[in-house]
Amino acid sequence: MLQRLRRQLSGTMVTMWLIGLAILAVVVIGTIRTLAMGHYTGADWLDLSIYGIAQGSIYALIALGYTLVYGILRMINFAHSEVFMSGPFIAYFVAVAVDNAGLMGDSNWVIGLLIVMLVAMLVSTTVAVLLERIAYRPLRRAPRLVPLITAIGASFFLQYTFLGLFGSGIRGYPEIEALKGRMMIPGTNVPILKTQLLVIVAAFFMLAILYIFVQRTKMGKAMQAVSEDKDAAALMGIDVDRVIVVTFVVGGALAGAAGIFYVLLFRQVHFFMGFFPGLKAFTAAVLGGIGNVTGAMLGGLFLGIAESLFPNLVLDGLGIPAPYQLKDALAFVLLVLVLIFRPTGILGERLAAKKA
Predict the structure, then answer these.
(1) How far apart are CA 165 and CA 28, in angstroms?
(2) Which pLDDT tens digit goes with each residue over 24-50?
């Protein structure tokens, strides 16, 4: 038994566990010190948690685009962050026109917001489908590194296309008067920003619809079959190309909706707005188990909550000034830790040798 234990405990594994224990010790010590200082009230932690859920639901919607494409094609679509950016960017011009037409007022803001969201979803879906048809379909049988490099190139192409066409300035979305301020969560005494409540409810509704679509519909089952084995699915009569296009359509539509939810919270668009949310959504997909729809949802919510709570909860107690400025670094620390200790993610399964 001792010899078997020595074979299993390699130097790399011991180093990994030492790093993990050191990080855990820092988290525990920082948390205890922060709570002991009493700088934050229960209401503060509740506000941070609600903000994290709202932001995490956006990450989850974007992460589903990554995980759906990976599940079907076994590739990481790094251009998906620009799919997320393109929808709300183009919809900004529609939002201004709708606002000038008076469709963002107190009585009919729902109609105006639905118009803007439909435009954003349509634009993002169009960009996603064009990416699949022009950039990815010709490379479907190529080595896996080739479409990965192509995806990175497509990401830069879209970024700098929007930069060249619209400039580098930041554009502010029109405010919706009816969504200003706070309200109580129905049935509770918990206050919440109206925009946060709208984002959380709408995002969870979309996540539920997607789950039902994948698990219960004929097309969803076809997507699962293609994910298992494209050649076998084709032999069983499934139109593989059609399934792949539908996958990009669903991922693009969710990214466009996530873009509108993002601007409801932050009210600005620019050509680079998709970079960090895209990387964090990719982290969420890996965290939950890339290729796993439920895992991407849970990974997005977990990352959003962790990003909102952990900087103040852990770093404030360690005496780090302005800990919230390190929230972006937290996402990449989590990514590295997941890749080290559980590469398959929380709900991921080990791929067969043929798929790996």
Answers:
(1) 49
(2) 788 888 888 888 888 888 888 888 899
Classify residue 325 by its DSSP letter: G
Distance CA 198, CA 257 (A): 12
The pTM assigned to this predicted structure is: 0.89
Joined tokens for residue 109: 């803001």
Closest CA to 123 of 84, 81, 66, 77: 84
- What's the number of domains the chain is made of? 1
**CATH number of the CATH domain containing 276:** 1.10.3470
Instruction: Single out the residue of 135, 124, 134 nearest to residue 75, CA to CA.
Output: 135
Question: Any residues with CB less than 8 A from the CB of 233 and at least 6 apart, and which?
Answer: 222, 225, 226, 240, 243
Domain assignment of residue 179, yes or no: yes
Provide the residue range defining the domain that includes 97: 41-341
On whether residue 286 sits in a domain, the answer given is yes
In a domain, 29, yes or no: no
Quick one: tokens of 239? 């139109």
* Distance separating alpha carbons of residues 98 and 112, to the nearest angstrom: 6
Specify if 290 maps to a domain. Answer: yes
Per-residue pLDDT of 181-206, as tens digits, reads: 888 887 777 888 999 999 999 999 99
